[in-house]
Design the sequence.
């Protein structure tokens, strides 16, 4: 009976394993091989060039600018989104007078903040592209209506502002999901913990730091990894929103955009594959380091 059970399990897993090999592992293997060639992506046999593509990455100023911009996003996007998500979740959960219960209409506010998740990335990019328009955009129009004409800017055309304008859209579009995630995790924390802290005279900040954050740490860690991966991407928003795209002067260039341009504009598929492999290992290293750095003793709920 035991052998029959093992045979059944093997037969059930074999189709899924074959599909995984064909559609997941095989493309990875092909990308690794292409990164060692100078294939143009159209016809002819790919010429093996070894590590030349990777050596060229180290001297490519546009790729290095893309790496720098992705690192800026990596340092700011997870921290900004998680901090704002935790703040909003805590405010909705304990924002009433006295800090003992949620604010009135908390579910409605959660839906409002979550709404950007229902929109595709392309729609989000187009909408914010209109909002950032220097002449007829909502942001500059609002500033001028308030008499703050001096603050009006060409948000996506100034090198010092363009990347942070994209960053603001990334945070806006993602914070609703993490607000709902953290709110659901807070609902699982026993109320007795907060009642005991209240009786001990703990303030809201102390309660958050000593009770809420430790019990949400696993959720925060997962959110940090996912947002870090999003920061290492950023292709769609940059492609649609920015001039160039990747401009001005490479101020919003990201690795995904450089990869796309080299592959489908310059027909340098081997070089683009090398960028993809570099991005793959960079993402893998980040995920491992983030999980190890954030590892701490698990807090069990009684």
Sequence:
């Amino acid at each position: 009976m035991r052998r029959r059970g093992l045979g059944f399990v093997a037969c059930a897993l074999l189709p899924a394993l074959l599909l995984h090999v064909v559609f997941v592992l095989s493309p990875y293997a092909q990308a690794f091989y292409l990164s060692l060639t100078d294939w143009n992506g159209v016809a002819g046999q790919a010429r093996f060039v070894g590590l030349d593509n990777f050596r060229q990455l180290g001297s490519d100023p546009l790729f290095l600018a893309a790496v720098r911009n992705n690192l800026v996003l990596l340092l700011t996007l997870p921290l900004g989104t998680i901090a704002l998500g935790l703040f909003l979740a805590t405010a909705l959960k304990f924002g009433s007078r006295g800090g003992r219960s949620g604010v009135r209409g908390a579910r409605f506010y959660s839906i409002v903040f979550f709404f950007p998740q229902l929109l595709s990335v392309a729609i989000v990019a187009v909408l914010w592209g209109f909002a950032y328009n220097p002449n007829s955009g909502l942001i500059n129009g609002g500033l001028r209506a308030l008499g703050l004409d001096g603050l009006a800017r060409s948000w996506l055309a100034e090198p010092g502002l363009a990347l942070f304008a994209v960053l603001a859209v990334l945070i806006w579009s993602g914070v609703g999901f993490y607000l709902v995630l953290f709110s659901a995790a807070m609902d699982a924390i026993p109320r007795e913990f907060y009642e005991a802290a209240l009786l001990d005279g703990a303030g809201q900040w102390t309660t958050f730091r000593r009770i809420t954050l430790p019990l949400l740490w696993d959720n925060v860690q997962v959110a940090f990894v996912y947002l870090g991966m999003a920061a290492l991407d950023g292709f769609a928003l940059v492609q649609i929103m920015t001039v160039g795209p990747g401009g001005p002067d490479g101020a919003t260039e990201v690795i995904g955009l450089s990869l796309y341009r080299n592959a489908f504009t310059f027909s340098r598929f081997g070089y683009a594959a090398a960028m993809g492999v570099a991005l793959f290992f960079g993402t893998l290293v980040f995920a491992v380091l983030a999980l190890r750095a954030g590892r701490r003793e698990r807090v069990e709920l009684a």
